[in-house]
Protein 1
Amino acid sequence: MDTKTSHLLLSLLFLFFILSSSTAALSLPPAEQEAAYTILETINPSFNWRDLYPDDLCISAPHGLLCDFFPSSNSNHITELNFGYFSDYTSNPTCNFTSTNSTSLFALFSSFTFLKKLFFFNCFTSLSSYTALPPNLFSLLPSTLEDLVLLNNPSLSGEFEMDASSLPLKRLVISGTAISGEIPLLPSTIRQLVLSRNSIYGQIPPSISRCTNLNILDLSYNRLTGSMPDQLTQLVNLIKLDLSFNRINGRIPDTISGLKNLEMLDLSFNQLTGGIPTGMGEMVGLKEVYLSWNRIGGQIPEIWEKMGDNLVGIGFSGLGLIGNIPASMGIYLRKLCFLALDNNLLEGPVPVQFRRLESTASEVNLEKNQLHGLVPFSADFVVRLGSKLKLGGNRGLCQVGPTGSEKKGSLEMLPACNATEVPRPVVISTGEENGCSGNGRVVLWGLVLLLGLLVV
Ligand SMILES: *[C@@H]1O[C@H](CO)[C@@H](O)[C@H](O)[C@H]1NC(C)=O
Ligand SMILES: *[C@@H]1O[C@H](CO)[C@@H](O)[C@H](O)[C@H]1NC(C)=O
Ligand SMILES: *[C@@H]1O[C@H](CO)[C@@H](O)[C@H](O)[C@H]1NC(C)=O
């Protein structure tokens, strides 16, 4: 044995000694190790987890089980448990949980007194039976839990426990389940609350105002009723507010203008009334606003001046809006990509200022209104947007010049404008202000003839 080899062997021995002594000191408490095995066996009995991972689970564990060292107890503890195959990069243990009663499963998590995150994806998916959530779910979970995610678990049923405020939750995501019940009382630590795609009913509780750290509030696709409480508008740190696809009624509170950091507001598919609040014009950070399919009514307010720097999407379909489309939308909305004003009762022309939207817009839907007059968009824009420009169902809208094959997209369907609707290139009276008819081309030819006569 040469000196090089023996040196290497010595170093390896030293390393082994270091590792084994440190693991002895840092080992996972046996109660946590045992609870982890039991949970893995409960969630997916088709693997022999004890044989697959015989060592300390903080050293070798299935993906999704994470530990941390805690000097206070001078040992490792499990801090994260993630279940359900998510992707090749996060290949958590797959689930095959078929029992109808999950109480004993969730009770096992109380063994992890340092657990911060619990994540279930696609774990309760049985087509034949539901798994009931324990009625006391939040009391069963460890009092250290900050992050609870139950995503895409369609056969998870039962009702929420009404009080989750004893947990130091920062993120609560329960989405895509059959869970019902009312929105529970939440701790003020919470930053993200996503309870979308469940069967939650009742009203948004005024107590939501204590959650002043909320950035994301998504309660979409539920059965919520009642009105939007004013307290909702005290959540000044909200960036995203999504209440779409519920049965919320009443007015949008004018105090919504207090949500100064809001970037995304989606209230579409509810039963809101009372007009678009002018206070919205103060929400200068708003990037997307979707109110479509409510009974909001009224006119489109003049609120666009301060909103133009950020607004990229506006969904105002099917709101019962009346009156004209404000020209200010064309003037100020410098970044607009998506605009839907379809299925309203809007009348008057499409403002010529809408020509300015051409540099940014990629989808414009004005169909099924009572608009009339010349469409202000250029032929290039019409071709570029194709079917993403919708103008049909407005009996009075028309276009200049040739119809049919020369212009593509939605303009194909529009008739050519009558003379009075085409802006005149030069102000020369033809003596036929009223009652002139024919299409734009006839008027232009008339002007050319007239000019010819003047020159001669
Ligand atoms: C799930 O478990 C059942 C028995 O409980 C078994 O019949 C089935 O094959 C398992 N499915 C998978 C995908 O492992
Ligand atoms: C579910 O199991 C727990 C104990 O494991 C039991 O106390 C409870 O009654 C069960 N619930 C139902 C609905 O069977
Ligand atoms: C153009 O005028 C004719 C007859 O004057 C009328 O029937 C038609 O509706 C008008 N078209 C438009 C687009 O206003």
Protein 2
Amino acid sequence: MIPQTSPGASYRAHQTEIDDAVARVMQSGIYILGKEVAAFEKEFSAYLGAHYGIGVGSGTDALHIALRACGVGAGDRVATTPLTASATAAAIEMAGAIPVFVDVDPRTGLLDPERLERAIKDDGSQRLKAIVPVHLYGYPADMEAITALANRYGLMVIEDCAQSHGASIDLRKTGTWGHMAAFSFYPTKNLGAIGDGGVVITNDRSLAEKARLLREYGWRERYVSERAGLNSRLDELQAAILRVKLPYLDRENRRRCEVAELYAHALAGSSLETIRPTAKVQHVYHQFVVMCDRRHELLVFLKEEGVGALIHYPVPLHRQPAYLPRRPPKEDSLAHSERFCGRVLSFPMFPELTNEQVGKVIHVVKQWETTVRVPA
Ligand SMILES: *Cc1c(COP(=O)(O)O)cnc(C)c1O
């Protein structure tokens, strides 16, 4: 069986270094907010080209804390895409705010700036405060257009970078375009811990300070809460492991791109559509997705032939029970997102995939195309 993703393979690829780092933390006797977290915050923000990093408990918490640091609170409205992990909307709701779902570009699955501007105008005086673009699958959203809109309408921008570690637009990394950004280190992400973790990124000193306070009870001074905060800290073990893996991130992203090239090349001319990045973006292929009208059949066939595949995501957020109250008044206004969710399929994608495994995936897909798939 070729798995769709493999955090275990990532551990094994760096096992000696990770085991040493874990032993170092165990022996240090300091397990929360010590040297490892401080060093990782510096190293990761430097890698991105940003000034500040604040290690937190998860990607969801990073988004929540960034939203609150940006002044988003009860009753505020936040524009985002419905084609994302539930975490994006969960974080907006955790801040007391209301997600306003805006449709995606049908070619990329990313927030559509034209639709976004319409949504901003339609919202009128209804307290739209911020935009959360998601760099879905590792493909950067159109940050030039989105930040231009944010400036014009006085909105905050918090990037959801949970799938885009190392991705860039014109060599400027995702996570450095908005007022703040949130990264997740969930084990399957491009930079993954061995448990939960996340980081808030910003270039703004005062926003950084707010996020730093929020992650630990609102303390500036120990035992004195300046504002109502929470407890969401990246721990020393996870930070030490992330420090081992960070220097390999670019190399591993390049391998993801190689695998994506092999897939895309083999699928050219087939019935499966792929997403092709433009020349100005560096895509980091958190996922390699194809669009297929007979997705369910393909999924079943792949499983039978020993190829793991997943659907990111089967149901857009506005169709999920928790977020039904947030669906837009106009029924068809999120039609592109719905069509995407109905057709998309993610192939195996992780840096440790061998060329032989990639070849097998391609072979099985071609088999489905030529023998199983009866022309519609
Ligand atoms: C993984 C993910 C998150 C949440 O990260 P956690 O660390 O699991 O809380 C948020 N947004 C997107 C787009 C994600 O893929």
